[in-house]
Design goal:
alpha/beta; 9-stranded mixed β-sheet; two-stranded antiparallel ribbon; 20% strand; globular
């Protein structure tokens, strides 16, 4: 990525999984890990980039898992949405410790702890250089936080989705289980769908493809990884048309 392209990222969506907040623990939140990610966000925020965030809830409760264990799917998904609100509040607290003005914006109304989602208000927060954390997914069951991130990224006119994971890009198979896994530098939306590469779920990929929104997959465990991507450094996979 050239220097000129680096500056073209005026507004981005950072999508991270709930598991990214666990650190080395088995479940829940690991405050030092939350604080480390907040510091990464601050570095990029200080570069003048407007940042949206969506955080999954899998470290607390995963709707599909609950459904698989006999719970009614809609109820399980709503519980998963509430888990994302808890993660969003934790990240808000960590960011505000670093003096970054942050808004948690929930797709499920809970006025005491988060703003309701109003697109124009959220855009205004971004223009005022506040970090917007979109919580509770899309507010609908049967949709993942990947789809929520892609939806909000489009609504907020983000120029890219940066998906922070535990690996440094997209592989043809799980690199933690297969030593011969091959990493892609670039891959198309259609290849992701046809080869079932597991970047995001199919509806999120289709939504990104239909709106020509690039997805950049990188390792969140790499110190300075978020800033590095915007500077065209480090290892990552770009998913685009």
């Amino acid at each position: 990525m050239a220097e000129t392209e680096q500056k073209s990222y005026k507004r981005v969506m950072l999508k991270i999984s709930g598991e990214a907040l666990m650190g080395d623990t088995a479940y829940g939140l690991h405050p030092p890990t939350v604080q480390r990610i907040a510091r990464e966000v601050k570095i990029v925020h200080d570069m003048g980039v407007e940042i949206c965030m969506v955080i999954g809830g899998g470290n607390i409760f995963r709707g599909l898992q609950g459904s698989a264990q006999g719970m009614e799917r809609t109820t399980a998904d709503y519980m998963g949405m509430l888990a994302t609100v808890m993660n969003a509040l934790a990240m808000q607290s960590a960011l505000e410790e670093l003096n970054i003005h942050t808004r948690v914006i929930s797709a499920i109304t809970m006025n005491e702890i988060a703003e309701p989602y109003i697109r124009r208000r959220a855009v205004r927060h971004l223009e005022k250089k506040r970090v917007c954390i979109f919580a509770a997914g899309t507010g609908n069951p049967y949709f993942t936080t990947d789809t929520a991130a892609t939806l909000r990224a489009n609504e907020m006119a983000c120029e890219a989705i940066l998906k922070g994971t535990k690996v440094d890009g997209v592989y043809d198979k799980d690199p933690t289980k297969h030593a011969d896994a091959v990493r892609y530098d670039e891959v198309t939306y259609d290849e992701v769908l046809q080869k079932h590469l597991g970047v995001m779920d199919a509806s999120a990929i289709a939504l990104a493809r239909d709106n020509n929104l690039p997805i950049i997959v990188f390792s969140l465990d790499e110190p300075g990884g978020f800033k590095g991507i915007l500077a065209g450094e480090g290892t990552y996979t770009r998913v685009s048309g």
